[in-house]
Amino acid sequence: MYLANLPLPGQTLGDGRLETNMGGKGANQAIAAHRAGANTRFISCVGNDNTGAQILHELKAMGLDTSPMKTVDNTATGTACIFIDASGENCIGLTPGANAALSPELVEKHHREITDAAVVLMQLEIPIASVLAAARHAASGNACLILNPAPAKPLDAEIYAYIDLITPNRGELAVLTGRQVATEDDLLSACRVLLQKGVAMVLVTLGKEGAVLVDRDGHQYFSAYSVVAADTTAAGDCFNGYLAAAIAESGMANSGAAIRRAMAAAAISVTGKGAIPSIPSKTEVDAFLRRPQ
């Protein structure tokens, strides 16, 4: 729902404009990787309802490989309610629905796709136990594991050692580490907490401030591209999908170029509206990167 301002607790705002679109962090990221040119397979669950059927139809029409997706009986498809203000900022509430059915047992059925992958990208709208199961398979197959820890929640200590790159925003970093992240020193200190837990690299997305990559050798800042934002929904998902695709193509050794490409894709996405409808094509990103910055 598009509103002039985000509602405060107990406040009712009128004159909103409602749109219904397909989204979800996993779907957004999978479509972003697909549009970036990566050979993408999406392991997920939808409910046995009209929404689930529509999602499968639309994803197939986009050319995404949906063969690993499962339709779950007697369950509604996961849903998000998103409020977006005039500046493009948003707040989101979720009901997991069929996402909760993506069990470790279902992950096991797809272990071959995971172990054979160049990059495995996950987020936290599915059960933590399933994230851990997939992380173990990724590690056994030498896949690069990228975890977007959103929505932020406590993680099993074991999982950190499997993570090659974790991509929190500032708020998610605070939740994961229990640290203040208001200042630059706070932020870098919180990143080092994740490194100490076993993560290889931490990439913090900072919105209009860009991003910072932190590893055991130091840190590097990346400036954001200047655009006029209409809707920031799915910008982080677009970033992660394009990042995964670029790393799959060029490897972690070229992480700087991958980050800049992912930031370009995210910058384009915030100029559009909706989740998946705003995710740009590879051609659009190429053109954006060629323009004078």
Key words describing this protein structure:
single chain; 293 residues; alpha/beta; 10 helices
Helix content: 25-40%
User: Given the helix and strand composition, which structural class is it?
Assistant: alpha/beta
If you average the pLDDT, what whole number results? 94
Q: Calculate the terminal CA-CA distance, rounded to whole Å.
A: 32 Å
Number of helices: 10
Low-confidence stretches: none
Tertiary shape: globular
What does it look like?
There is one protein chain. With 293 residues, this protein is of the alpha/beta class. It has helices at 25-35, 50-61, 104-109, 111-115, 128-140, 170-177, 184-197, 235-250, 255-270, 282-290, and strands at residues 45-47, 70-72, 79-84, 90-95, 119-123, 144-148, 165-166, 201-205, 211-215, 218-222. A six-stranded mixed β-sheet has the order 5-6-7-8-9-10, with helices on both faces. Strands 1-2 form a two-stranded parallel ribbon. Strands 3-4 form a two-stranded antiparallel ribbon. β3 (79-84) and β4 form a beta hairpin. α1 (25-35) crosses α8 (235-250) and α8 packs antiparallel against α9 (255-270).
Quick recap of the structure?
This protein is α/β, with parallel strands linked by helices and 293 residues long. It has helices at 25-35, 50-61, 104-109, 111-115, 128-140, 170-177, 184-197, 235-250, 255-270, 282-290, and strands at 45-47, 70-72, 79-84, 90-95, 119-123, 144-148, 165-166, 201-205, 211-215, 218-222.
Question: How are the SSEs ordered, and which strands pair?
Answer:
Layout: H1 25-35, E1 45-47, H2 50-61, E2 70-72, E3 79-84, E4 90-95, H3 104-109, H4 111-115, E5 119-123, H5 128-140, E6 144-148, E7 165-166, H6 170-177, H7 184-197, E8 201-205, E9 211-215, E10 218-222, H8 235-250, H9 255-270, H10 282-290
Parallel strand pairs: 1-2, 5-6, 6-7, 7-8
Antiparallel strand pairs: 3-4, 8-9, 9-10
Helix pairs in contact: 1-8, 6-7, 8-9, 9-10
